[in-house]
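Problem: given the chain below (176 residues), write out its structure.
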Amino acid sequence: MITVRAATPDEFPRVGELTVAAYRALSVDHLFGGYDKRILDTAARASGAEVLVAVVDGRVAGAVTYVGDSSSEWSEWTEPGEAQFRLLAVDPAARGQGAGGALVRACMERAAAAGSTIVIHTTPWMQIAQGMYERSGFVRRSDRDVPYEEWKEDDFDLPDEWTGQAFLAYSWSATD
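Solution.
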C-alpha cells in the first residue's frame, strides 16, 4: 500500500538525495548551474511549497513538490489561480509500483480542492513522466512551452543538448 503525506523534516535529506539521483539518471544533464544544491535543500523548498512523499512499507519511495500558490518562489511560469508540481522523483527500486501516480493524484486532489488548474513543465528527456501525465488526464499545451534560452540564467552555461529545446507544458483541470 502507498501512503502519500507531507514530508517530515527528518525525511528531507532522503527527499533531496532521491530527487537528485532521479535527475542524475536522465540521459541529459539536468543538474547544471547548481540545481543539484537547490534540490538538496528540501527544507527551503518546504518553506515555500508543500513537499509530499509516497511511503511504501515504511520507506520514502518517492517525492514531489506541490506549489499551490503561483506567487511562490517555487512556482515557474504559472498564472494566478494555477497550481504546479515539480521535482517528481521515484526511487528506481520502487518504479512501476504506483508511487509516481499516487503523488500526481495527490497534487490533482489538492488543486481540485482549491479550484486550481495545474500547469507543469517537463523536458523532452522525461518521456516516462510525460506518459504518466497523459494517462492521468494532463493535456499537452505547446502554447505554454518555455524555450530554454528564455529561461536560462546568465550565471551558467547552458549544456549544448538544451540549445533550441523547450520546457514542455502540460495542464490539467478538474473542470475539463
